[in-house]
Amino acid sequence: MSLYPCYKYLIYIPFLILWTLLNFLGVAVVAPFSPRKASRWFGGLWGRGLVRAVPARLHIAGLEHIDPVKSYVLVANHLSLMDIPILYGWLPLDLKWIMKKEVRKIPVIGIATAMLGHIFLDRSNHIAAIRELQQVKANLQPGTSILFFPEGTRSRDGSLHAFKMGAFYLARDLDIPLLPISLRGTEAILTPDGMDLHPGAAEMIIHPAIPVEDVRACSGEQLRDRARDIIGSQL
């Protein structure tokens, strides 16, 4: 009988709670002075710690396609909650996340993400969502990137589902490159629902950015289809 369930409940879950609280304290101290530094220092530490403690192995391809001083709209497929610490832990970017408004209600995580300037959308209220994205456009700082899971939720069957349009309209509105990312294997580490956690390996593939010239030339629908084809090519 595997001893891993004992490790998960007696060590990993208490570590997850404590590690999240410790990094939240770091965010609370630093974010009022520099949300960007708080995000990179403590968000990165949080993500790497949670992945390594599983333990999970991560293979990354394509980091050379990222310029840390540029802004991007990032789009990634979504297989598991483990996607979040992977992206946060290893992407060398000041990330702002597009999240469901329900995340704001999660203890500690909701407060920390709000302090870091992440964006909560009410997907049941289209007008409110548009208003929030317009505010994002007005406040975007150079070197800050915005991440979407354009499927809107985790894939329960591992397949790549239809993409919503928000990321692609926003890339055009902001006039910045679009960066597609493929994630593989995260659902085998942490199932899409619940805490069925297993040691394993995952992969993050960072594709070349769709340059701003192409973003300008393409419609939102063309960008959506192009990004979905790129992400799907590695799944």
Notes on the structure:
The chain is of the alpha/beta class. It has a single domain, classed as Glycerol-3-phosphate (1)-acyltransferase (3-Layer(aba) Sandwich). Helices cover 45% and strands 17% of the residues. The chain has nine helices and seven strands; from the N terminus they run H-H-E-E-H-E-H-E-H-E-H-E-H-E-H-H. It has a seven-stranded mixed sheet, sandwiched between helices. It starts with a helix and ends with a helix. The mean pLDDT is 89.
In short:
The protein has helices spanning 4-30, 35-52, 83-90, 109-115, 126-139, 166-174, 186-189, 212-217, 220-232; strands at 56-61, 73-76, 94-100, 119-121, 144-148, 178-184, 200-206. With 235 residues, the protein is an alpha/beta fold. The chain is globular and about 55 Å long.
Please specify the SSE layout and strand pairing.
Blueprint: H1 4-30, H2 35-52, E1 56-61, E2 73-76, H3 83-90, E3 94-100, H4 109-115, E4 119-121, H5 126-139, E5 144-148, H6 166-174, E6 178-184, H7 186-189, E7 200-206, H8 212-217, H9 220-232
Parallel strand pairs: 1-7, 2-5, 2-6, 3-4, 3-5
Antiparallel strand pairs: 6-7
Helix pairs in contact: 1-2, 2-3, 6-9
Instruction: Report the β-strand fraction as a percent range.
Output: 15-25%
* Uncertain residue segments: none
The level of helicity is: 40-55%
* CATH architecture assignment: 3-Layer(aba) Sandwich
User: Which structural category do the helix and sheet elements fall into?
Assistant: alpha/beta
CATH topology: Glycerol-3-phosphate (1)-acyltransferase
Indicate the radius of gyration in whole angstroms: 17 Å
State the CATH class: Alpha Beta
